[in-house]
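Batch manifest line 168
LIGAND: zinc ion
JOB: complex structure
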Amino acid sequence: MKNEMGITRDAHARFFSKVDKDGPTVSHVDGLGPCWAWTAAVRRDGYGWLRVGGRMLRAHRVSWAIHNGPIPTGMCVCHRCDTRSCVNPEHFFLGTKGDNNRDCVAKKRHVPLPGEQNSQAKLTEAKVIQIRKLYATGGVSQKALGKRFGVAKSNIWSILSRKHWVHL
Ligand SMILES: [Zn+2]
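JOB STATUS: finished
ARTIFACT:
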């Protein structure tokens, strides 16, 4: 069994062995459940990667192929949740040819999804920038930041690790 991306039964099994559906990621897309954390290689660009048949493929594209079949030529698989390493197929949408992923994210940003609409609703862009600045300056813990801004420590973590608010 092989589809057009070369997703063999073996690759399928390996894919799921590297997914943590109850991972530390706190992103939720309304009505679609939490992100699936990728526990294998995540490159600097923020995407998870999986070796399939000697090729390194982006994990979210593999996920799409497993759940939805081949990715139409020239289309990119984008994240509604703004979490590039997320491999929850319900968080994906297809971008049009020529879009890069940054564009995809930007396009979807003003649809009622991540950022101010979800669990991060207590924060504004200005506050997020302030949180990152404070933390970078040092001497303040994530817990203390959470208290100060009235959000959970996990939210602070997701801001600092750019799981959320990646556009800032
Ligand atoms: Zn997600």
